[in-house]
Specification:
Largest sheet: 3 strands, mixed
Helix content: 25-40%
Number of helices: 2
Distance between the termini: 20 Å
Order of helices and strands: HEHEE
Strand order of the largest sheet: 1-2-3
Shape: globular
Number of domains: 1
Length: 68
């Protein structure tokens, strides 16, 4: 996916269905250019998603939750 923004629950489910035949484990990543951009979407980020902030690339934020 080549966009930024949240991996919200709807997108999470759509991607899970799309890759249901995959034998690899799926990792969901929401990418943002900076923290300010992430703050706009933080309430929409699905649980069990990683968030990456481009201007702080050495860290990931994990939204821990039940694996779907």
């Amino acid at each position: 996916m080549a966009s930024h923004g949240p991996a919200d629950p709807k997108k999470h489910q759509e991607l899970t269905r799309l890759f249901q035949g995959s034998t690899a484990g799926l990792v969901y990543v929401a990418a943002f250019p900076n923290k300010s951009a992430m703050v706009k979407y933080v309430s929409n980020i699905s649980w069990d998603t990683e968030a990456r902030i481009a201007n702080n690339p050495s860290h990931l934020i994990h939204f821990y939750g039940k694996r779907l």
